[in-house]
Amino acid sequence: QVQLVESGGGLVQAGGSLRLSCTASRRTFSAYAAGWFRQAPGKEREFVSAISGSGGSTYYADSVKGRFTISRDNAKNTVYLQMNSLKPEDTAVYYCTSNERGYTGSVSGYYLYWGQGTQVTVSS
């Protein structure tokens, strides 16, 4: 099992930027696919982005394409989500996730490990 810890959330005005980080507890995280989901109060968990273990393939929800960028630094056991041009509808708790099977799709049930989440609030 791998432990994931998110950081970088906070309060930002619409149009601003924020960078989230997810650090894993072990170096084998470099072999795992990883991604980000978000969940607003009263809503279902929503796929945001995913990345292959090598970082060579990335995937984005239509709602964030062109604004968010996922990346990883396997030497640091860390995955990032750079969020630009933030909108109030981006407000949610953002969760880092991973799996050992190379799954990079949008179905949350196929991911094995989850972080505790970090709050992102975008004001208008």
Relevant terms:
mainly beta, 7-stranded mixed beta sheet, 4-stranded antiparallel beta sheet
Report on the architecture of this protein.
With 124 residues, the chain is mainly β. The protein has strands at residues 4-7, 10-13, 18-24, 33-39, 46-51, 58-60, 68-73, 78-83, 92-99, 113-114, 118-123. The strands form 2 sheets. Strands 2, 4, 5, 6, 9, 10 and 11 form a 7-stranded mixed sheet that branches. Strands 1-3-8-7 form a 4-stranded antiparallel sheet, with no helix packed on it. The chain is globular.
Number of helices: 0
Order of helices and strands: EEEEEEEEEEE
Radius of gyration: 13 Å
> Stretches where pLDDT falls below 50 for ≥5 residues?
none
The helical percent reads under 10%
Strand content: over 45%
Structural class computed from helices and strand pairing: mainly beta
User: Averaging pLDDT over every residue, what do you get?
Assistant: 95
Overall geometric form: globular
What summary fits the major beta sheet? Answer: 7 strands, mixed
> Span between N and C termini?
40 Å
Number of separate strands: 11
